[in-house]
Amino acid sequence: MSYFESRLKININDFAEIERKLKFCQELRITNLILEPKNDTIKLNSEFKQRISKISTLNLYYRINLKPNSLNDLKKRIQPYNNSSDIISVESMDKNIQIQAAKDSRVDILSFSDQDVIKTISPGIISLTKQNNSFIEFSLAPIMARNQAAQSKYLRRLYRAVQLAVQLKVNYIISGNFDDFFKLRHPRSLISVCHTLLGIPLLSAKKAFSENVLTLIDRAQARQDKNIIESGVKLLNEGEL
Amino acid sequence: MVKRERNRYILFKVITKDNSDLDQREVLNAIWQSIWKYFGLREASKVGLWLLDIDFKEGFGIIRCSHNTKEIVISAITLITEISDKRVILSPIKTSGTIRSIKTLKKLITNKG
């Protein structure tokens, strides 16, 4: 089974850095990667994607992370991505934005990656996300902090949030989201960390790094297929079965 | 009859910044410290850790642990970020129940480059 690193931030203006990051991932034997531009307002064009795919043998996917300031800002920012095949995630501390994002079918992920954002997770948001068949995201980056007090504080917050998600049986993914090269880890290693430190059952942790991410990618790609009316309902052409 | 405890062999990659030199003892101490830090005495006593082989030139190492604590050891290795103030990654590649298969895999990887 191949595992995914679901979030690797890239600076799209610095191609040399992207190349170095991808090479480093290859050295770590990571095979599937989801790249995210650091500047959320930029829509990735196919030319740029082709250029990246030429320099790497990794399976690459793309996501856009929106950090809106208000409800109107969310509506404005999400509009260009109506038919985008890229994964769209929303990250905000504002409850109203979270609720709107959880209801919006264009939003694939509600991200709780940040140390402060993770505090705002609630059963209500999880329930809305579940109804919309979208995903909740957690990140492991802050647990690599050097400051032990900050590290344990985040671990506690993460533990509570993850246990809530597991209990309520919502679809969730876990990403590394490491900025620093020397904090990058192979997803299989992160599965062990989730299992031992966060108390997630091993199979469930593996699912969060593989199966769930595949479902998420399919969901994002299905947006472009006009024959798909809603999840599980597809118009078939004559003779097609 | 008492069942013999099974072992697991973990092959891991060693990546250091600027290819800085490390000592075998430093690596082993770092792994123990990480196990102590994150899992405490209770788990550390069950681990049965043994550093079998470490090759800084090729950048690979093999450790042995009890099969029950495999995930704990992988986590501990993963969470190591520094050894003697040098930035380092110890990235587990493969776990096996026999030393022979781990050594074969190591040979395969190193020959491939």
Summarize the structure.
The complex is a heterodimer of chains A (241) and B (113). Chain A has 241 residues and is of the alpha/beta class.
Structure description:
The complex is a heterodimer of chains A (241) and B (113). With 241 residues, chain A is an alpha/beta fold. Chain A is 41% helix and 18% strand. Chain A has a domain at 64-226: Alpha-Beta Barrel (TIM Barrel), CATH 3.20.20. Chain A contains nine helices and nine strands. In chain A, the strands form two sheets. In chain A, strands 1-2-3-4-5-6-7 form a seven-stranded parallel beta sheet. In chain A, helix 4 runs parallel beside helix 5 and helix 7 packs antiparallel against helix 8. The relative contact order of chain A is 0.13. The N and C termini of chain B lie far apart (46 Å). Chain B has helices spanning 24-47, 70-78, 99-112, and strands at residues 7-16, 50-55, 60-66, 82-83, 86-96. The radius of gyration of chain B is 14 Å and the shape is flat. Chain B is built from three helices and five strands, in the order βαββαββα. Chain B has one domain (7-112): Alpha-Beta Plaits (2-Layer Sandwich). Chain B is 42% helix and 32% strand. In chain B, a hairpin with a 2-residue loop joins strand 4 and strand 5. Chain B has 113 residues and is of the alpha+beta class. The chains are: A alpha/beta (241), B alpha+beta (113). Chains A and B meet through helix 7 of A and helix 2 and strand 5 of B.
